[in-house]
Design brief:
Elements: H1 3-15, H2 19-33, E1 43-45, H3 59-67, E2 71-78, E3 83-88, E4 95-97, E5 103-105, E6 118-122, E7 125-126, E8 132-133, H4 139-146, E9 152-156, E10 177-179, E11 184-186
Parallel strand pairs: 1-2, 1-6, 6-9, 9-10
Antiparallel strand pairs: 2-3, 4-5, 7-8, 10-11
Length: about 190
């Protein structure tokens, strides 16, 4: 399927989820993450969900990271350049929604991309080869291309994989894993 078609399909599927279903699925994803070989790493980048888009609730993952004493990094979007600026998430970090309802840090201690060990990647859909479909602005492909070569890229999905995303291009960066409420996909 084409990315455009997949975006429409999965946005519609998300809309049908009840708040309770979304919470249960988000918790199941967090529990599955415990089985991945990532917990010796230090710097974990995570997205804060756009609740209006019914994105996976990453609060459960934040609790895991906190309980394991990990350094947590969140980003702020620059829509002019499609860059993400990364900040250490601390008790003092103020979070505010931007004009697109994306929760972002207001300011804080900036962290360079090359320090990050693990990135939890938001997505709408993914395929059996590890390609993903996001919202189409290219923020994460650009960000992941700036990370060190051995960064672990983990997609978080509410739904299982598609067979094939047909309009992949050279700048698309593949995932290493994708975790759903039901399974762990390794690529």
């Amino acid at each position: 399927m084409l990315k455009k078609e997949l975006r429409q399909k999965y946005k519609a599927l998300r809309k049908q989820l009840s708040e309770n279903e979304l919470e249960e699925m988000s918790l199941a994803v967090a529990n599955k993450l415990l089985k991945l070989p990532i917990w010796e790493k230090t710097y974990f980048h995570i997205f804060l969900p756009i609740t209006e888009q019914k994105e996976i609730n990453t609060e459960f993952i934040l609790h895991l990271l906190s309980g394991k004493d990990k350094e947590v990094i969140v980003s702020k979007c620059d829509f002019k350049t499609c860059d993400l600026v990364h900040f250490l998430l601390t008790d003092n970090t103020r979070i505010k929604k931007n004009e697109y309802n994306i929760p972002e840090p207001v300011d804080g201690i900036e962290v360079p991309s090359h320090k990050i060990d693990v990135v939890f990647v938001p997505l709408l859909a993914f395929d059996k080869k590890g390609h993903r479909v996001g919202y189409g602005k290219g923020f994460y492909d650009k960000f992941l291309s700036e990370c060190k070569s051995d960064v672990i890229k983990i997609g978080l999905s509410l739904f299982e994989s598609e067979e094939l995303i047909t309009d992949i291009f050279e700048g698309d960066i593949k995932l290493d894993y994708c975790v759903t409420p039901y399974s762990i996909h390794s690529f």
